[in-house]
Write a structure and sequence with these properties.
The complex is a heterodimer of chains A (about 425) and B (about 240).
Chain A: H1 2-13, H2 15-55, E1 58-61, H3 81-89, E2 94-108, E3 113-121, H4 126-129, E4 159-163, H5 164-170, E5 177-183, E6 189-200, H6 205-208, E7 211-215, H7 216-223, E8 231-236, H8 242-252, E9 257-260, H9 261-264, H10 266-304, H11 306-314, H12 319-354, E10 358-359, E11 369-370, H13 377-394, H14 396-403, H15 407-412
Parallel strand pairs in A: 3-7, 4-6
Antiparallel strand pairs in A: 1-8, 1-9, 2-3, 2-5, 2-8, 4-7, 5-6, 10-11
Chain B: E1 13-24, E2 27-38, E3 43-47, H1 54-61, E4 69-74, E5 77-78, H2 84-94, E6 95-98, H3 110-121, H4 125-138, H5 154-166, E7 172-176, H6 184-201, E8 204-208, H7 212-217, E9 220-225, E10 228-234
Parallel strand pairs in B: 3-8, 3-9, 6-7, 7-8
Antiparallel strand pairs in B: 1-2, 1-4, 4-5, 9-10
Classes of the chains: A alpha+beta (about 425), B alpha/beta (about 240).
C-alpha cells in the first residue's frame, strides 16, 4: 500500500497538471456516457415503435414467409390462423395474440387508382396493444384532422385508414368513399367499397405513400380469407423473456416459423448498427485522446522524478515496483476521472432532460422527438472500465521507462 | 594496496581489484584495480579531489553499478555478480544511502520518508512507524517528524536522510558528500552523529568526501587520485 500512497501523493503534488488530465478523462466519460444514454433512448424508441407498430414481441409466420415475394395475397399463410391464435391465447406467457393479414392491391377513387400495401387487423384488440390507433386520437392535430378515428368494431363496417401520402395521391380525406381491389386467395379479382375513417402518419414517407389498414372482416371479405392469416403477432406478459419464449414456442409450433421482433425489425437493426459504428468510432477517438493525455502526464511526471526514482531504486525498489507505482498513478487518475465524470454526466443529463429539447426528425421520418437521455448504469460501467484500461495501458510506457532507468545515471540527473 | 587471499572473508566491506571504466568527455575515467577493506563499525572516508573516482567507487560498493572487473564482498559474501533482484534485495535490507542533495521523497513527511524502506521490506505500518520515530529521535528530529522535506533546513533534511538510511538497521551505510550542501556549522555535527552511530550501533559507514572536517573524524581514510587508490590512513 505504500506504493499506492506514494502514487496518490505524486498526483496531488502536480495539482494543476493532474486537474487538466482529469478534465480530459471527465470529458471522455461525459461524452461516451451521454452518447450511451442517447443511444439507449433511440434504441428504446425504435424497439417500442417496432413492437407496438405491429410486430409484437414474437411473430408466428407460415413456413417460407420470409423468403421471396408473394405473387398474390395469402399465398403464404397460416391456413387456420384464427384457431392457432385462440390456442396461443391460452399459453400462460402470452398476453394477447393479434392475427394479421397482409395483402396488396389497388385503391381507387374512381378517377385514379394507386397500388397499396394493406394490413388487416383485429379492430377491437389492436388499439389495446399497438400504437396504430394513438396517432388517430389527436383530434384536430391528427394527420387526418378532426374526425379521424380508429376502425369500427362493427364487423359489418367497411372502413379504411390511409397513409397520408396515399390519401394525398388519391385526393381522399376522412369520409371519402374508395374501392379496394385485390385478388382472393384463389386468384379471383374482388373489390370492396370502403369509407376513409382516418389518416395515418407512419413516420416513414415510403410507408405513408403506400400503406393502409383495414379490419380483418373487411380483408376477409375482399380476399375470401376464411380463417387463414398471414401472421400472428404475439404480445408477451414478460417482454424480457422474448428470446426464451421464442425458442419455447418454436418447439410447440413445428409447422410455423416463430421470430422475435428484433430479427424482423430491419430498420431497428440498421439504426443500431449505424449508431454502434458512429459512436464506436467516436469512442475510439476519445479513448485515444485519453490515452495520449494520460501518457503525456505520466511521462512528464517520470521525467521530473528521474532522480527520485534513482533514489527509490538505490533504496532497493525493484524495477517492477516502479512499474506498479506508475500503474497506481494511472489507477487513481482513472478512478477519480470516472467518479467526477459520472457526477458530471448525471448533472448534465438531468439538465438536458429538464430542457425538454425537441430533436429534429431523423432521416426518413416526418416528426421530431423529445430528447430524454436514459440513465444506463451498464454504459457507465463499460465506459469507466474502458477508460481505466486505457489509462493503465497509457501508464505502461512511462512505467517501463522509469523501470529501465540506470540508477547511477538517474542519481546524476538534474 | 591490500590484496586479499582467496577465501578471505574478513571486514564488513571488501573491494577486491575493482575496475569500472567509462568514457567522460572523450577520456577514460572511472576506478582501476582498487582493493580495500572496511571493518565493521568503522567510519571510513573515500577522500580525493573531484573526478578521483570517489562516487564511482561508492556506487560499486553500494551495488548501484557493477564492476567491469573485480569483486565486491559484503559481510564476507561476494555480491557484485548477483542478479539485479538479489542486488535490490540487498540494498533494501543490508545497505543504507545518504546523498549529497538529501534526496528525500518530497511528497512524504520526514517520518514517512524514514518509514518508506521499512514498509518496502514488508514491515507493518505500526512497527515501521515505531522504528522510524526512534530513528528520527536519535538524529534529533522527533519534533519535526511530520514536516515535509521542503519545510526542513538542509541540515535537518540530511539528518532525516541518515535516519532513513539507519532505520532498516543496515550493515553498511554509504554516504556521498553528505556535508557538501551544508555549512560548516551543520556539517561537523552531522559527521559527529555518524561517528557516534558507528560506535554505538556497530554500523559501518563509507563516506565519499573531500571535506577536511569529514576526513578529520574518520577512523580510516582511503585516498583516491585519478581512479586509483594512492594512500590509506588509519586513526
Amino acid at each position: 500500500m505504500i506504493l499506492a500512497r506514494l502514487a496518490l501523493r505524486n498526483l496531488l503534488r502536480q495539482r494543476r497538471r493532474t486537474a487538466l488530465t482529469l478534465m480530459v478523462v471527465v470529458a471522455g466519460f461525459l461524452a461516451l456516457s451521454l452518447a450511451g444514454g442517447f443511444m439507449a433512448q433511440t434504441f428504446q424508441g425504435l424497439s417500442d415503435a417496432a413492437i407496438r407498430g405491429g410486430l409484437g414481441h414474437l411473430q408466428v409466420l407460415p413456413p417460407g414467409a420470409l423468403e421471396g415475394d408473394e405473387a398474390q395475397s395469402l399465398e403464404k399463410a397460416i391456413p387456420d390462423g384464427e384457431a392457432l391464435a385462440a390456442r396461443l391465447r391460452l399459453d400462460p406467457a402470452v398476453a394477447e395474440v393479434l392475427p394479421r393479414i397482409q395483402f396488396m392491391g389497388l385503391l381507387s377513387s374512381g378517377a385514379k387508382s394507386v397500388a397499396f400495401l394493406g394490413t388487416a387487423v383485429e379492430s377491437t384488440l389492436e388499439p389495446k396493444h399497438m400504437a396504430s390507433a394513438e396517432a388517430l386520437q389527436g383530434g384536430a392535430l391528427a394527420p387526418g384532422g378532426a374526425g379521424s378515428r380508429w376502425l369500427s368494431t362493427d364487423p359489418a363496417a367497411r372502413e379504411v385508414i390511409l397513409g397520408t401520402g396515399l390519401a394525398r395521391a388519391l385526393g381522399a380525406t376522412v369520409g371519402s368513399s374508395l374501392t379496394l381491389m385485390s385478388t382472393t386467395k384463389d386468384g379471383a379479382l374482388n373489390a370492396v367499397d370502403v369509407e376513409v375513417v382516418g389518416l395515418q402518419d407512419l413516420g416513414l414517407r415510403e410507408l405513408n405513400d403506400r400503406f393502409l389498414t383495414v379490419s380483418l372482416a373487411t380483408a376477409s371479405q375482399l380476399l375470401d380469407a376464411g380463417p387463414a392469416r398471414s401472421r400472428l403477432s404475439i404480445v408477451l406478459k414478460r417482454p424480457q423473456d422474448t428470446a426464451r419464449e421464442q425458442a419455447r414456442l418454436q418447439t410447440l409450433l413445428p409447422g410455423t416459423t416463430v421470430k422475435p421482433w428484433f430479427e424482423l425489425a430491419s430498420f431497428y437493426r440498421q439504426v443500431k448498427l449505424l449508431y454502434f459504428a458512429i459512436f464506436g468510432f467516436m469512442g475510439l477517438v476519445l479513448f485515444l485522446v485519453v490515452l495520449l493525455a494520460t501518457a503525456n502526464t505520466l511521462l512528464m511526471s517520470v521525467m521530473e522524478r528521474v532522480r527520485e526514482f534513482g533514489v527509490l531504486r538505490a533504496m532497493g525498489l525493484q524495477p517492477g515496483q516502479l512499474l506498479v507505482l506508475l500503474q497506481w498513478e494511472g489507477a487513481f487518475l482513472g478512478f477519480m476521472g470516472s467518479a467526477l465524470g459520472l457526477a458530471a454526466t448525471l448533472l448534465l443529463r438531468a439538465g438536458l432532460n429538464a430542457l425538454h429539447l425537441v430533436m429534429p426528425a431523423p432521416p426518413g421520418t416526418s416528426h421530431g422527438y423529445e430528447l430524454n437521455i436514459h440513465f444506463v448504469p451498464v454504459v457507465y460501467l463499460i465506459v469507466a472500465f474502458g477508460l481505466q484500461v486505457t489509462i493503465q495501458v497509457s501508464a505502461l510506457f512511462p512505467g517501463i521507462k522509469a523501470a529501465r532507468l540506470r540508477i547511477v545515471e538517474a542519481l546524476r540527473h538534474v | 594496496m591490500t590484496r586479499f587471499p582467496p577465501g578471505y572473508t574478513g571486514g564488513m566491506l571488501q573491494l577486491d581489484r575493482i575496475t569500472r571504466a567509462y568514457e567522460l568527455g572523450g577520456e577514460r575515467a572511472g576506478v582501476f584495480g582498487i582493493s580495500l577493506e572496511v571493518p565493521k563499525g568503522c567510519l571510513a572516508v573515500l577522500a580525493g579531489p573531484s573526478g578521483s573516482g570517489k562516487t564511482t567507487l561508492l556506487q560499486l560498493a553500494g551495488l548501484l553499478d557493477a564492476p567491469d572487473e573485480g569483486e565486491v564482498r559484503l559481510d564476507g559474501k561476494a555480491v557484485s555478480a548477483l542478479p539485479e533482484k538479489a542486488r535490490c534485495d540487498l540494498r533494501l535490507r543490508r545497505l543504507g544511502f545518504v546523498f549529497q542533495a538529501y534526496n528525500l521523497v518530497p511528497v512524504l513527511s520526514a517520518l514517512e520518508n524514514v518509514m518508506l524502506p521499512l514498509q518496502l521490506q514488508g514491515v507493518t505500518e505500526g512497527d515501521a512507524r515505531q522504528r522510524a520515530e526512534a530513528a528520527l529521535a536519535r538524529v534529533g528530529l522527533a519534533d519535526r517528524r511530520h514536516h515535509r522535506p521542503g519545510q526542513l533546513s538542509g541540515g535537518q533534511q540530511q539528518r532525516a536522510a541518515i535516519a532513513r538510511a539507519l532505520a532498516p538497521e543496515p550493515l553498511l551505510v554509504l554516504a556521498d558528500e553528505p556535508t557538501a550542501s551544508l555549512d560548516h556549522a551543520h556539517g561537523g555535527p552531522l559527521m559527529d552523529l555518524m561517528a557516534e552511530l558507528a560506535q554505538e550501533r556497530g554500523v559501518t559507514f563509507l563516506v565519499a568526501s573531500h571535506d577536511p572536517s569529514v576526513i578529520a573524524r574518520a577512523h580510516r581514510v582511503f585516498r583516491l587520485l585519478d581512479g586509483r587508490l594512492v594512500g590509506e590512513e588509519r586513526s
